[in-house]
Amino acid sequence: xxxxxxxEKYFNWKSLxxxxxxxxxxxxLISIQSQHxxxxxxxxxxxxxxxxxNTSAHDVAHKALAVxxxxxxxxxxxxLYFTLALTLPNINESWLKGFSSSLKTLSKKYNIQLVGxxxxxxxxxxxxxxxxxLPKNQALLRSSAKVGDAIFVSNTIGDAALAWQQxxxxxxPSSALLKKFNxxxxxxxxxxxxxxxxxxxxxxxxxxxxxxxxxxxxSSVGARxxxxxxxxxxxxxxYIEQTNDWCLPLSGGDDYYVLCFTVPETHIEAVQSxxxxxxxxxxxxxxxxxxxxxxIKGLNKTCTSYQHF
Amino acid sequence: xxxxxxxEKYFNWKSLxxxxxxxxxxxxLISIQSQHxxxxxxxxxxxxxxxxxNTSAHDVAHKALAVxxxxxxxxxxxxLYFTLALTLPNINESWLKGFSSSLKTLSKKYNIQLVGxxxxxxxxxxxxxxxxxLPKNQALLRSSAKVGDAIFVSNTIGDAALAWQQxxxxxxPSSALLKKFNxxxxxxxxxxxxxxxxxxxxxxxxxxxxxxxxxxxxSSVGARxxxxxxxxxxxxxxYIEQTNDWCLPLSGGDDYYVLCFTVPETHIEAVQSxxxxxxxxxxxxxxxxxxxxxxIKGLNKTCTSYQHF
Lengths: 309, 309
Description:
The first copy, chain A, has 309 residues and is α+β, with helices and mostly antiparallel strands. Helix content of chain A is 34%, strand content 27%.
């Protein structure tokens, strides 16, 4: 099978949107409404670095798109289109079938269209570039947290990190943990609802401590959070009871089902309503402060966050 | 150096365009004018596959952006922004300095802004996703060649392929050939001038025969070209005189300084004016025909084009 057959067979899906020219020319063509702006982000997943070697094609495809959708969610953007740069060691049709099918399912769920890509030969690696749209000047930036804002996170923290730790220790994580690690659900609907409600937002990809610090640095503020307020699943809770290792949820990363956002006090009720409407738990974990420092009440050690190199 | 320092030091360049939010948030934000549409394309270069192992950081960066700009050129789009997914085996500051500086120089030349990216650890690989803008419904598609159109190519064909062949045979190509192979100049200005003049266009990345065939297939037409009309540099001309290997220019690929386009007879003079204005040689090599077949007059063998797998 050559590159063109591969694209035709696995990635030339029917257009979701008649206003786009997708796969098959030198570029894809996309129109957007006036008064909107584009939000774009790119993330690469490499086998053995971002997912274990025996991960299924289904889960690889899901995660590759989900981590990117999570970036759109963190801006409050509505997904529009994406490109796929896929590096494969060889043509394995069964693998490609699983990958393509899973990617298509997730892209349909979030109404985002594959418009172009490139396939190359090499160690397995997936680079996806997502683009979404937003009403102009409404994006949820990292740089606009205000002193006094309440800090919220969605769902629970640290599940993906615990799964990853167990895999590295040759244990088999529970299906609930594996789901958070392999097939996270990006918080796209939550991000959209937070437009006009939150002052700042980020997704938790490198660990809560490091990601919240990005908001603090870019907003020139500090924060005080309480360890005991951080929402944990029973499994992570048990893990901490046994180990007292708070660094796992604080700096574990890969929480692509978590947004961390800050809202003015006057919007806390709105946040509660959004949580109820979407059926997601949204938990206040602290407050934005004036002194440019992240104080974690209850933590008596320094955690080391994920480093890419 | 961690990922964030790396991005800050090498890739957080001053914005070319105040209407963009670039590196440093979950997504970049971009506004475009109404009545315009976006053209987007992605290409990956892998060390040892798309460029030799000893290629300089300067040339790697240039080529990675140039092959993508070439796709914008082939649509007639004006470059607007790009994202960079960079996979590195380690942090080599001298390499990064050369890479960053070359990328910045080329991006300034074509007025295209780096708005985001991702850095990961692995075998050296560069994925760039470029986006440009176009007046709506004016893009140079592959699917709109018409019977009777004259077929043109810019510059000369096969220089990059000859360089690559010499490198693989442990010969050192001339500096002129190496320049075509390592630091091609994408035909962005030519593509823009062809809007409203050409019926169809493609860049020559996989070899003239295969790329022209994409136009023919997508337009449901055929073509007749003359071998002796194909513009060749003296070096490629000498090579063919010695070897009679016409497959090198026909299926060599990597001609990112070449656009192949078709124009109605009535626009041939306009093409000549564009060539003079830009100082580029534009050569008629054949004509679009009704029967869905590519006839290459003078060729008495079948060439094999580059296959990605």
